[in-house]
Write a sequence for this structure.
């Protein structure tokens, strides 16, 4: 089980001349990470616990990692963000609410930069922009969502009737349109907490197909 | 009598591919119970599993010799719990993912199989 617990799988979701998107999964933990690459530059979204899959991919594809972003910072997402940023010299971005310890409510002591709503993250010939989605039940955290020209990258809190979180985690535009145009179902436990609709930016989105998902739930 | 049949070792990549194809198999997890409770195999569909710690097999087998004790336990107490028609994936803490059939349980008597898991 040790080998299964530490197994990572990398697959290309998009491989175009000007844009590549890779999914890195750790199936035993149900964790997903994404690498958005363009023109030799890369942004890593929700880096996973061990760095080698990401570093190996960047080395093999001659990518310079310029930014490392966590969409959320809960205990269910075991992030290697701080270590990856230190290893590559990239900036590490986190929403400030996610940098607050949930028990002692102290701020993070590791280096990071704030994510602001609407903030733009250039990557080669493309850019990601941050948005908001549902707040988490207990901590009223705001989560950043990232939209490339084709995809939305969500944290783990977003749910929609009939759609597993693993599909929403990195959603093609067809899914985003369906989500944004129909009511969202929330677990009852969330109703007492702050809940925000995310705002889907109406950019020139276009579709590319179905995103392979992790076999287990995502975080 | 338990007889040893064909067995194979799955890599972690093999296991992932089978889970993604929604293949059916049965898991015999020989780790300690607390380890099993904290972390077990999961897939898009529930993965059928039974947890029998290896050292319980040794103890409950009631034989002086290690291999004989495990085989005795499997024949007497475990065989009926195993699926006859599904591949049986036996997993230990160290890393091996070893598939077999119900009648191939004697292979599990090997104390710590050499891991070939990627």
């Amino acid at each position: 089980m040790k080998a299964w617990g530490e197994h990572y799988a990398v697959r290309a979701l998009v491989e175009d001349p000007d844009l590549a998107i890779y999914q890195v999964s750790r199936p035993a933990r149900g964790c997903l990470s994404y690498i958005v690459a363009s023109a030799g530059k890369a942004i890593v979204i929700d880096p996973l616990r061990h760095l080698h899959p990401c570093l190996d991919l960047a080395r093999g594809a001659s990518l310079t990692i310029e930014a490392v972003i966590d969409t959320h910072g809960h205990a269910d997402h075991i992030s290697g963000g701080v270590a990856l940023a230190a290893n590559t010299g990239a900036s590490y971005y986190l929403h400030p609410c996610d940098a607050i310890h949930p028990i002692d409510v102290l701020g993070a002591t590791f280096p990071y930069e704030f994510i602001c709503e609407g903030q733009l993250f250039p990557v080669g010939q493309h850019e990601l922009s941050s948005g908001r989605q549902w707040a988490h039940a207990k901590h009223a955290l705001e989560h950043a969502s990232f939209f490339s020209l084709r995809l939305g990258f969500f944290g783990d809190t977003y749910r929609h009737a009939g759609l597993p979180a693993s599909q929403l985690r990195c959603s093609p535009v067809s899914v985003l349109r369906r989500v944004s145009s129909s009511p969202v179902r929330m677990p009852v436990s969330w109703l007492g907490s702050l809940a925000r609709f995310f705002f889907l930016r109406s950019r020139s989105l276009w579709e590319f197909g179905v995103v392979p998902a992790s076999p287990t739930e995502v975080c | 009598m338990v007889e040893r049949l064909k067995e194979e070792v799955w890599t972690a990549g093999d296991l992932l591919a089978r889970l993604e194809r929604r293949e059916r198999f049965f898991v015999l997890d020989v780790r300690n119970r607390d380890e099993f409770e904290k972390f077990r195999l999961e897939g898009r569909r529930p993965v059928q599993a039974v947890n029998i710690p290896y050292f319980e097999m040794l103890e409950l087998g009631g034989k002086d010799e290690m291999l004989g004790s495990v085989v005795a336990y499997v024949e007497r107490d475990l065989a009926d719990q195993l699926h006859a028609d599904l591949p049986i994936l036996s997993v230990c803490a160290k890393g091996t993912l070893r598939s077999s059939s119900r009648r191939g349980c004697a292979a599990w008597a090997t104390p710590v199989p050499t891991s070939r898991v990627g």
